[in-house]
Amino acid sequence: MRDDAKRRQRLRAFVQSQAVDELPARAHPDSHLLDDWVLYGPKDARIERLVRRLALDHGLRVADIEDFIVATLEQLSADYSDDG
Q1: SS3 of 2, please?
Q2: How far is C-alpha 32 from the geometric centre of its chain's CA atoms?
Q3: How far apart are CA 22 and CA 75, in angstroms?
Q4: pLDDT means per 10 residues in the chain (84 residues)?
Q5: Measuring CA to CA, how many Å separate 69 from each of 17, 21, 42, 58, 72?
Q6: Angle value at C-alpha 20, between 27 and 13, nearest 5 degrees
Q7: Interatomic CA distance for residues 53 and 6, integer angstroms
Q8: pTM summary value
Q9: Distance between CA atoms of residues 50 and 23, nearest Å
Q10: Which residues contact residue 48 at a Cβ distance below 8 angstroms, ignoring those fewer than 6 apart?
Q11: I need a labelling partner for 12 at 20 to 30 A (CA). Which of 25, 48, 57, 59 fits?
């Protein structure tokens, strides 16, 4: 299977998993970027550079960096939920 076909298959599986998890479908100006995120990662190259620097220069494991990112985003989401 070609890389493009694999990417489309993974994206389709991801979209289906979100429907199963009953996440609300919303119109958003960045919908295409959010859909591509699972396949291509963040568009901002600074994120990749920072992760690489933390891993290679400071010895952090990528899983630990991802855990930090998730915890930070969860806190941000909770902060927005508390405001609403």
Answers
A1: coil
A2: 13
A3: 21
A4: 74 67 67 82 90 94 94 94 76
A5: 22, 22, 12, 17, 5
A6: 85
A7: 29
A8: 0.61
A9: 30
A10: 41, 42
A11: 48
